[in-house]
Write a structure and sequence with these properties.
Blueprint (H helix, E strand, L loop, with lengths): L1 H4 L25 H18 L12 H16 L9 H7 L21 H11 L1
Helix pairs in contact: 2-3
Length: 125
Amino acid sequence: LGWLFKAKERKVEKINLLMFLTPTIISPYDNQAAKNTLSTLDKRFKHLKPVIDDGNDEPFKEVTGELKAKIEKQSNGPLYDTTPNTYQRTNLDVQGIGGATGNNKQREPEVPDYKGIADEVKENE
């Protein structure tokens, strides 16, 4: 008899999560990139510190540890090959990409004869 008078209610409550992103354009080859990333990781840890205790571990602790190690390597020196590749050698070459010779004069761009085209259109009308 009790199950006739009991009530069940389902309610969906929406919560909006706002994320504020600050874009920063930095060169991946610059030590400043490593410094900015380290400071961002430090800020992240500072904001998570009140949540992290004995019962709650730091989320993604292993990933951030690996990332910090890689960033410290980058700040000590580049993580890329510093020898010029094919494209850099081509750009440094006197002839350049287009194979310009000698005096390195740039070729005049080919511009259509707009007046001639307009005259042809008028003649065909």
